[in-house]
Amino acid sequence: MFKALIEPFRHPKLGLGLGEARGLGAPAGRRPKAKAKDSRATLLRIWGYLARRKAKLTLVLLMVMISSALSLLGPYLISRAVDHYLEGSGGRPWLLFLVTLGLVYLLNSLVSWLQNIWMIEIAQETVLRMRTDLFAHLHRLPISFFNRRQQGEIMSRLTNDIENISSTLNSSAIQIFSSVLTLVGTLGVMLWLSPLLTLLTFIVVPLMMLGMRWITRRTGPLFKERQKNMGELNGFIEETLSGQRIIKAFSQEERVIAGFRERNNNIMLSGYWAQSISGFIPKLMNGLNNLSFAIVAGVGGLLAIRGVVTVGVIIAFVEYTRQFTRPLNDLANQWNTLLSAIAGAERVFEVLDEATEAKDEGAAVSLERVDGAVKFSHVSFSYDGENETLHDISFEAKPGEMIALVGPTGAGKTTLIGLLSRFYDPSKGQITLDGKDLTSVKRESLRSHMAFVLQDTFLFRGTIRDNIRYGKLDATDEEVETAARLAGAHPFIMRLHGGYDRMLSVGGGGISQGQKQLLAIARAILADPSMLVLDEATSSIDTVTEIKIQEGLRTLMQGRTSFVIAHRLGTVRAADRILVLRGGRLEQQGTHDELLCQGGLYSDLVRGAAKEPEEAQG
Predict the structure, then answer these.
(1) Which of 154, 126, 122, 125 shows the shortest CA–CA distance to 138?
(2) Which of 284, 288, 377, 565 is the most buried (most CB within 10 A)?
(3) Considering the chain, what is the average pLDDT of its residues?
């Protein structure tokens, strides 16, 4: 354990000359090098959010200035009272000093309370806007962003990272500004009282600055690494919780626990060193503070004996010395919190800076009506800009036709549908809908005329009725039930406790995968689209259930252009045109009978499908 804890100091990047953090506790090369961030720019962006409440923020800053002035006034009044007493004066002025001093500290407490309450309100509203902006921005990002990110890692930015910003704004923002003002004000008063004692006080300041610089250069990257490790752990947890069935089915519990232990250890190491190194700051500040106090008290006593300064000035100076070093100590302590908040803010702004889904062209139009005439003309597409997933695809779909897409896994069927729905735009070629180039049609308008039943069915937390109604939010209960009947979902819904009001957990826990897909089909039927996309819609439905819903699907497809992806070739026999894809190329197209006569890949697929039942019987 001890060896693991000291390992960061041995690492060339995590040692005493730490520059940037890399994979604590993980083998070298396991993680990519972190990209440098601009902390100053991050702070300015946070300020941009704060500045939206300028009026209240101005009041807070005014309260901070008043509080700082009152804290400076207290020691001065004490010094005057002491000098007044030593001079032998008595009577009412002494009592007046006490009353005034009491009022100063009472008013200081009231002002401090007001500024804290107002700052908390500003901080919470700022974080509310930041979280809202981030969540809204996520819905404007392209599908490719979510394909390369773990859900848990994204969630960590919405929760942990923004919570770090919230904590800092609540406590540290006011403290930092107050400390700066107190430093400036204290320095001014000290120079006015005694330039010589002020100079002696400043002997320890360079030592403080050097110590803080040495420490913060090492803790900053560690706080960033901790936030990164936290995001990775959240992503890993979300992934393993979602895949519990697979983990248990393949008895991979020990491997998953080992993976969690490694990531958890990374957080422990980065957090240990960040907190341990930053823990030196208060010790350093207290030691130097005591040294400063000793210098001022010793030299000040000699000066008082010689009559250079009064005893009251010495007493005030001792207090001002503490007031001068205390803000430095506070700044050092708050600096670590600020570094953690900056690390979280950088991760938030990193997502906010992600390019959104390409904007619709200025001349893009909304579609009032869609007939469903689709044409692909020499379309090619690449996800990474180098390796083409689709190559020179050309075909036409007339209004109301059923187009089936078949081919081996990875042939490009789902990618083709992604282009049709403008989740992506083609790298080459053109796609038209009713004679209009899809790039000239607003995405929202296009998708409002389409309904999808995807291979990976997702149901939201809520009732079965609400999940079906997601296809048409203003649908009546009767319309919901009619859609469920057409999809063949009504019988199993009525067998459930609660029927259509049965509550489902996130993802539809408590019902089978086939039942989930029946609800997804009902949702598509309710949407009453002009075009329909079925991506392996019946892949998890048994043959008997599939036969039951064929009539409903045929009713749904009547008068609508439909694109059906299916491995079960029996479901595409009635298609008006079958597109046979392999390796991203369109090898064949035609009706079922035409393709059988042609031979080739489709005939091979049909023969392979026919052999499966025979082998099962044998």
Answers:
(1) 154
(2) 565
(3) 77
